[in-house]
Amino acid sequence: MINKRAILLSLSGIVVGGLGGWLYYHFIGCEAGTCPITSRPVPSILYGALVGFLLSGLGSGWKTRKKP
Question: What is the number of domains present in the chain?
């Protein structure tokens, strides 16, 4: 069962990751247009949001795991 804390953690990961993707595009991104992700803002934001979502779920089950 999904609780409110897990949903909030996932949403915050998406927002922070999307912001990180945009910051990467804005300050570091590829100007030549040859980089498929960082040459435009939308793919960079979506990729960052995906990474943020995946990283936000990494530590969710560590406390509930039981040792065999």
Answer: 1
